[in-house]
Write a structure and sequence with these properties.
A 6-stranded mixed beta sheet has the order 1-2-3-8-6-7, covered by helices on one side. It has a two-stranded antiparallel ribbon with strand order 4-5. It is built from 2 helices and 8 strands, in the order βββββαβαββ. The protein is α+β, with helices and mostly antiparallel strands and about 130 residues long. The longest helix is centred in the middle third of the chain and has 19 residues. It is globular. About 20% of the residues lie in helices and about 30% in strands.
């Protein structure tokens, strides 16, 4: 059984997708871009500000689903320019301080609304043995 996750504290889906879907203790968060939920506008600033907003959006969805950053097992970071990797990584590292998730980062040709970053996330609620 799947559960659709939706929160007003993260940007609303603007197409035929959900903010997140949970099934069998796994949460799949759609790619988040640096939209400010209250205004539906891209946050002003560069890669650091945009990454911070993306991480806030992810946090809001995790919270709405009953998860936290400690449940994240995989992130995929899409960058408009690989030269932004270092600055993105500095912000990203504030959210993952121990037991870091697996991660991939790619430079891509274009991202929606000409943003600098998009991050998709997978989180799991696991039982410790």
């Amino acid at each position: 059984m799947k559960r659709i996750i939706s929160t007003p504290n993260a940007p609303a889906a603007v197409g035929p997708y959900s903010q997140a879907v949970e099934t069998n203790g796994t949460l799949y968060i759609s790619g988040q871009i640096p939209l400010v939920p209250e205004t539906a506008k891209i946050i002003e600033g560069g890669i650091s500000e945009q990454t911070e907003q993306v991480m806030k959006n992810i946090a809001a969805i995790l919270d709405a689903a009953g998860y936290s950053f400690s449940n994240v097992v995989k992130s995929t970071c899409l960058l408009s320019d690989i030269a932004n990797f270092k600055a993105m990584n500095e912000v990203y590292a504030k959210y993952y301080t121990e037991e870091m998730p697996a991660r991939a980062a790619f430079a891509v040709k274009d991202l929606p609304l000409s943003v600098l970053i998009e991050i998709e996330t997978i989180a799991v609620k696991s039982v410790r043995l």
